[in-house]
Specification:
This protein is of the alpha/beta class and 399 residues long. It has helices at residues 35-57, 126-140, 175-182, 198-209, 223-232, 239-249, 278-286, 292-297, 307-316, 354-358, 387-397, and strands spanning 9-12, 18-22, 25-29, 59-66, 69-78, 81-88, 114-120, 144-149, 162-167, 189-192, 213-219, 250-261, 266-274, 340-341. It has eleven helices and 14 strands. The longest helix has 23 residues, at 35-57. It is globular and about 60 Å long.
Length: 399
């Protein structure tokens, strides 16, 4: 029902009807959902292994593919019982073109070291933009990419890149441990799902300084605020050192928000882009974040964009990508979802959401899946003479 209505979110709460968010507006419909039904659905989704974690924390994050839709699900304890907040993710492989982003954003991934921060408010499409940049690398570069997410939202099929995805809570105990591990895993690119605390931020900055390209998200309403929040998360006595680190390793800050286009019937990202020119680096070192806007307004030749200038470009744009379109650059085939939940029948009435959890069978965890002879579970990477692909291709042919 949520998919059919083009909803971005689905809210389920005991004793209340289901509610969907469509183009920013919340709509409730249907009969109230019994608490027992939601409790049973939550137990089926989380499983026995994770249920004790839910009881300890009173919340649980996971991702599933339901009815062909990749979903990020937060199960939480509320005053009425067990409720759920479900984010419906895009049903196609994200790229810069498919998200209707400015093509210059693609140039950011040509860097082999440094930090790219993607910021915005909740629900502004940060994860999609970051997934698009990872996919752009995957399509053209033979790099080793390690993603650290909580939970994994988009499943990538290794095409030219070699991709490892780790989920916090399932594959690693924390972002901090995963970042420490990543330094021993020979990565070229690191994707950090969210910089939540000073230790994660410190390790992220260190990774960007030591020869890796790092993509991370942050919550803010402007590019300058994103940098300010990173610095403010540290104790005051070391903030000057953090400012110096940021100035040295920053590649760009993309701050975005979504605007609905009635003529296209889609939401389009509207971006503010900060590039580290000499003036900007000087402002960062001195912690003068309030001066960033003036630098962005005069920095068009350096690749900087204000919301106003970006909006002007959107208004002049003639070609748009809408969901369902195909592009030539998309790899053939998709990586099967590790945790696909399949229903034998169309989605039932929303008053019985537990059938989502009970009707299908969750595929085994990828960690316990051995590569099958013949290649059914073998990751397919585009073969090419020499380099990483040739080595992997030879390994795949071994009995």
């Amino acid at each position: 029902m949520a998919k059919a209505n083009g909803a971005s979110d689905l809210h389920l709460e005991p004793g209340l009807p289901a509610a969907v968010r469509v183009r920013g507006t919340l709509r409730a419909s249907g009969a109230p959902i019994p608490g027992k039904v939601l409790l049973e659905a939550a137990q089926e989704l989380i499983g026995n292994d994770g249920w004790h974690h839910f009881l300890q924390r009173q919340s649980y994050d996971l991702s599933r593919s339901i009815q062909g839709v990749r979903c990020r699900i937060n199960v939480m304890q509320t005053s009425r019982g067990v409720g759920m907040a479900v984010r419906l993710l895009m049903g196609f492989t994200a790229t810069v073109e498919k998200l209707n982003l400015h093509p210059d954003i693609r140039k950011l991934i040509s860097n082999t070291t440094g930090l790219i921060i993607i910021s915005g408010s909740t629900g502004s499409g940060k994860s999609s933009t970051m997934a698009a940049l990872i996919q752009e690398i995957n399509l053209v570069e033979t790099r080793h990419i390690v993603t650290i997410e909580s939970p994994i939202e988009y499943l990538f099929k290794p095409y030219r890149a070699y991709i490892r995805q780790r989920e916090v809570g399932r594959d690693t105990p924390s972002f901090e441990q995963a970042l420490i591990d990543a330094m021993r895993e020979d990565p070229d690119v690191l994707m950090v799902g969210e910089m939540r605390d000073p230790e994660t931020m410190r390790l992220t900055l260190s990774a960007a300084e030591t020869g890796h390209l790092v993509l991370a998200t942050a919550h803010s309403s402007s590019a300058a605020e994103a940098l300010q929040r990173v610095v403010a998360a540290f104790p005051s006595e070391i903030q000057s050192g953090v400012c110096a680190q940021l100035a040295d390793c920053l590649v760009a800050v993309i701050c975005q928000r979504l605007q609905y286009r009635p003529d296209l019937k889609i939401q389009v990202p509207e971006c503010e882009i900060l590039m580290p020119g000499h003036a900007v680096k000087s402002f960062i070192r001195r912690g003068e974040f309030f001066k960033m806007m003036s630098a962005m307004e005069t920095g068009a030749n350096d690749g900087m964009w204000t919301y106003t200038r970006y909006r002007t470009w959107l208004e002049a744009r003639k070609t748009w990508h809408t969901p369902g379109e195909k592009t030539e650059e998309e790899p053939v085939g998709e990586l099967a979802a590790m945790d696909e939940v399949r229903l034998p029948q169309p989605a039932p009435a929303i008053s019985k959401p537990s059938s989502i959890a009970r009707s299908g069978k969750v595929a085994p965890d990828v960690r316990s899946t051995a590569p099958a002879k013949g290649g059914e579970n073998t990751l397919e990477i585009e073969p090419e003479e020499g380099g990483l692909e040739a080595i992997i291709s030879k390994l795949k042919t071994k009995p």
